[in-house]
Amino acid sequence: PKFAEEVIKYLLDFKARRLKDEKEKEFQKKKGLGNSSLPGKLSDCSSKNAEESELYIVEGNSAGGSAKMGRDRHFQAILPLKGKILNVEKKDIEKILKNDEILSLIAALGAGVGQDFNVNKVRYQKVIIMTDADSDGSHIRVLLITFFFKLFRQLIEYGMLYIAQPPL
Question: What is the pTM (predicted TM-score) of this model?
Answer without folding.
Answer: 0.74
